[in-house]
Design goal:
Layout lengths: L1 H88 L1
């Protein structure tokens, strides 16, 4: 009976070792898949951030150009108006 028990314990230990190996393999595959997924996602995020930054910079540049042009026109108009009022006063 003692031998049977040892044999059974050996089979149980072997089965447990096989199960742990199988679980470890699945865990490794899952970890690699997750690492690939996050790496791919990070690359896409960097690309998207680059595109958004370019769009933002271009829009900001255009907005600044419009603001500068309007300001220059307003200053020019004020100078002309002041000049015209000075001529009318004389």
């Amino acid at each position: 009976m003692q031998a049977f028990s040892r044999r059974r314990q050996g089979k149980a230990a072997a089965a447990e070792a096989a199960l742990m190996c199988w679980q470890g393999g699945r865990l490794t595959r899952a970890w690699k898949a997750w690492a690939d997924f996050t790496s791919d996602r990070a690359g896409k995020r960097r690309t998207l951030q680059h595109v958004v930054a370019q769009w933002r910079n271009k829009t900001l540049s255009c907005s600044f150009d419009v603001w500068r042009m309007r300001t220059e026109l307003e200053i020019d108009l004020q100078r002309r108006l002041a000049s015209a009022q000075g001529m009318a006063a004389t």
